[in-house]
Design brief:
This protein is an alpha/beta fold. About 40% of the residues lie in helices and about 15% in strands. α1 runs antiparallel to α8, α2 packs parallel to α8 and α3 runs parallel beside α4. The protein is globular, with a radius of gyration of 22 Å. The two termini are about 35 Å apart. It binds pyridoxal-5'-phosphate. The site of pyridoxal-5'-phosphate has 13 residues, from α3.
Length: about 375
């Protein structure tokens, strides 16, 4: 088997050695419960508090505004349900058509529980128009939930502008910032959001740890009953090693983000330019500039992504369709539907998400393998009649 070329960093990343080092004592001898009063408990409590302060420094907030959760999905559920319900049993929510399912399905669930949900469309390059947010506001709007950067096509939303609209209307603004960490600024006062969610495994912390920022004074209904951990907002014994890990990983990712962006965008642009040169019919999805530096998302005509991904995998290259859609027999992803990717292209959509360990050699290898693979599959494809 050839060397693994991992181009699926938007799905997950490996734990960085410095993150693992910081975690190890809390997976070993420092196993106390932060709620215990003895010295082992106090050491664990101190580690959690130090981690909270580390995260707060990165986000430019107070440590009391940082809540640790079990993942991005939990942070998002807690924010959307907890903020919407804090102002009464029903009301109106605004969200976008390209949110991650963690946010979209949560908003839909609130819809089943009596809330009115406005799902805003996006432009053909995947951007929410802030005027649409303004026009959707109602007297009973409880929450605006718009993601910062999209997980499939990498587009970056005008979040600060949307947050300003919310603030002027006195409506809470939450943002799923899971894909933004490590690439975009996360200062909560520059962004102006009331709440944001992060997930450790997207920036070299382990899977199964999330962060929720909640602006002081913002009412939130807890979604789990139990102990009084996390200011009474998220019950459950703290996952001390993972909390330490996520704080160290976030600090590292945000400190390195400019060089990371430069590194990824150079290689991503090389990939896209060469790909379009070799296969001129390649359709690039998402805004060309307003997108994450590491995201390349493109579609090929009349071919299924699954075949391409299997062919790449056989040559050691890990990529993704960027969505749950892996076969023409399934619906295309809601994101690709929302931006209107033409039917003859939509099933042949591939996401390659680069990372800090991606090299020019990796990209050159992909460029050697992918174009002939696509051409061969196009000739054989049952979708050929879509061409
Ligand atoms: N939101 C976005 C934009 C994501 O990309 C993901 C993960 O794929 C999530 C939320 C969910 O995060 P987690 O896997 O930590 O539950």
């Amino acid at each position: 088997m050839s060397e693994t070329i991992y181009l699926d960093h938007a799905a997950t990343t490996g734990v960085h050695p410095s993150v693992l080092d910081a975690m190890l004592p809390y997976l070993g001898p420092e196993y106390g419960n932060p709620s215990s009063t003895h010295h082992l408990g106090r050491a664990a409590r101190q580690a959690v508090q130090d981690s909270r302060e580390r995260v707060a420094r990165v986000l430019g907030c107070q440590s009391s505004e940082v809540i640790f959760t079990s993942c991005g999905t939990e942070s998002i559920n807690l924010a959307i349900k907890g903020l919407a319900k804090a102002q009464g049993g029903t009301g109106h929510l605004i969200t976008s058509a390209i949110e991650h399912h963690a946010a979209l399905h949560t908003a839909e669930q609130l819809g089943h529980e009596g809330f009115d949900v406005t799902v805003l469309p996006v432009s053909s390059d995947g951007i929410v128009d802030p005027d649409d947010v303004r026009n959707a506001l109602r007297g009973d709007t409880r929450l605006i939930s718009v993601m910062y950067a999209n997980n499939e096509i990498g587009t970056i939303q005008p979040l600060a502008e949307i947050a300003r609209i919310g603030r002027e209307a006195g409506v809470s603004v939450f943002s799923d910032c899971v894909q933004a960490a490590g690439s975009l600024p996360l200062d909560v006062n520059l962004l102006g959001v009331d709440s944001l969610a992060l997930s450790g495994h997207k920036f070299h912390a382990p899977k199964g740890i999330g962060i929720l920022y909640l602006r002081a004074g913002t009412q939130l209904v807890p979604q789990m009953q139990g102990g009084s951990q996390e200011n009474g907002l998220r019950a459950g014994t703290e996952n001390v090693p993972y909390i330490v890990g996520v704080s160290v990983a976030l600090e590292r990712a945000q400190a390195n983000r400019l060089s990371y962006n430069e590194h990824c965008s150079r290689l991503r642009d090389l990939l896209l330019e060469e790909l379009c040169r070799q296969l001129p019919e390649t359709h690039i999805n998402g805004h060309r500039q307003l997108r994450l530096a590491n995201n390349a998302h493109f579609s090929f005509r009349g071919v299924e992504a699954q075949g391409i991904l299997m062919g790449l995998d056989m040559r050691g290259i890990c990529a993704s369709s960027g969505s749950a859609c892996v076969s023409a027999s399934l619906e295309p992803s809601h994101v690709l539907t929302a931006i209107g990717v033409p039917p003859e292209y939509v099933y042949g959509s591939i996401r390659m998400s680069l990372g800090e360990s991606t090299t020019e050699q990796h990209v050159r290898r992909v460029l050697e393998v992918l174009p002939p693979l696509v051409t061969r599959l196009q000739a054989l494809s049952p979708l050929a009649d879509l061409q």
